[in-house]
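Researcher: Let's walk through a ligand-bound prediction step by step. First, I give you the protein sequence. Second, the SMILES string for pyridoxal-5'-phosphate. Third, you return the three-dimensional complex as structure tokens. Ready?
Model: Ready.
Researcher: Here are steps one and two:
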Amino acid sequence: MYESFQKYLSKELDEIKNAGLYKDERVITSPQRASITVRGGKEVLNFCANNYLGLSDNKRLVEAAKKALDQRGYGMSSVRFICGTQDLHKELEKKIAEFFGTEDTILYAACFDANGGVFEPLLSEQDAIISDSLNHASIIDGVRLCKAQRYRYANADMTELEECLKKAQDKRFRLIVTDGVFSMDGNVAPVDRIYELAAKYNAMVMVDESHSAGVVGQTGRGVTELYNLRGKIEIITGTLGKAFGGAIGGFTTGRKEIIAMLRQRSRPYLFSNSIPPMVAAAGIEMFNMMAQTNELQERLHWNTKYFVEKMQQSGFDIKPTQSAICAVMLYDAPLSQKMAAKLLEEGIYVVGFYYPVVPKGEARIRVQLSAGHTQEQLDKAVAAFVKVGKELKVI
Ligand SMILES: *Cc1c(COP(=O)(O)O)cnc(C)c1O
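Model: Step three, the predicted complex:
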């Protein structure tokens, strides 16, 4: 059998390569941080990590993880409900709820699992899920696993959302689900208006704060802080794998009855391992740090504003952003790849995105800012963009 299957796979893989869509992985040989070393020895400035607060190599977190490694060992070898729950896991869940102003939290191995396991235990055929068309793949997969009727509205289009809500009025329960920040444009979902429509049409709201938590809002508490909706959203999901240290882990936080039901019925929680004690311990330390100071948020917001303004002044076409994601619009797919390659030669690591990751004719370079970048590093990046931009006649 395998001979024919092998032929089939080789052909499919060739097609991916011929379409220019084959994903190669660049190998990093240093810790994840603003300045990294890639295999071959080249040192580059990193502008494509989700390391928004610069915590991936933070000393305090590394020390907390080391201490837990010594005191609590390496792994849990169990799911939570059999023998995989340490006091560390319970404490981290409490810290997450405090951070978001919610009632309770449930941890997962990743936010992909949190989203994969949130819909099916809560909703059934009688119910409706209304989803933004640009929601993350894990939300789409999670919705597929659930028998509820599905409705979809164009990205952040409140007229379409209202239409969906009207159509779903005969359903028992309605849940609107949206990413907090959309990762390709960096725009924030209009959760204020979503919340109003939910109230008008009797629906619940779920926000995935993966790209917004730690970043959006004056103190980084996410879109519920930005819109003054702390404690009012039924379900929030998020990751420990981006701003919050970048190791691994996801969570669902919100109304306590919802979290209680997920602990009973959510399959990625019931049938998958606990996060390692060192990750839980470093997570607790991270939330302690967040409770003490907003220094990193202030730095990140300053860095983002500074970079965007410098790029605009240099003549680049920048999408308006409300997050730490900055889309440098080029519109042309080959140009986006060429520009990213030339920037790497200049020591600036960024990625060019094009269809099907973004709409046709909207190719771009996505720059992700971090509190870990210094002003000097930002200046270096802008200078490289200007040099390469002139060479390629973008500006
Ligand atoms: C990154 C991301 C996830 C997945 O998070 P992991 O913890 O890495 O699995 C889920 N949702 C959104 C919106 C994301 O950006």
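Researcher: And what stands out?
Model: The chain is about 40% helix and 15% strand. The longest strand covers residues 325-331.
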